[in-house]
Design brief:
This protein is mainly α and 141 residues long. The chain is built from 5 helices and no strands.
Length: 141
């Protein structure tokens, strides 16, 4: 019976680590998209919205977290899983908050996005970047 329990724990650990790799692969584009939007705003010499800066911060912290979760692989049993469960809850709360905050900007039309943030439509960045960033926030959640 002990062998089956150890085998179950090994598969669960492998699944959780594969999930972390997937989350990392989704988080990296979010960082890049947020950086592109921040660059567009700063190039137009317009104040960067706090929501975009917050999305960049959450994505960076999430990537560090996902890399950090590989460290407790050496821990045994309940310590490993309870530590990850607490951190997962905090990360899910951060992504859920970002998804809620970005909802108004990411689901509006491009013209509404341009009117909200830019004086001249020619200065507007590709608002589809914000929509894509919103989608990656949802998938990461």
């Amino acid at each position: 019976m002990g062998f089956l329990r150890v085998l179950d724990e090994v598969f669960l650990r492998l699944f959780l680590l594969a999930l972390r790799v997937f989350q990392g692969l989704i988080t990296v584009p979010t960082i890049g998209l947020a950086a592109a939007v921040i660059n567009d705003f700063s190039s137009a010499d317009i104040q960067i919205p706090r929501k975009i800066t917050a999305a960049e911060a959450v994505a960076c912290v999430a990537l560090l977290y996902e890399l950090f979760t590989f460290l407790p692989v050496i821990w045994e049993g309940t310590t490993f899983f309870s530590f990850l469960a607490i951190l997962d809850f905090l990360l899910a709360a951060a992504w859920a908050t970002m998804t809620g905050v970005l909802d108004n900007d990411a689901t509006d039309t491009c013209s509404q996005f341009t009117i909200k943030y830019f004086n001249k439509p020619s200065q507007s960045p590709d608002c589809n970047i914000v929509t894509a960033m919103y989608a990656f926030c949802i998938v990461t959640l």
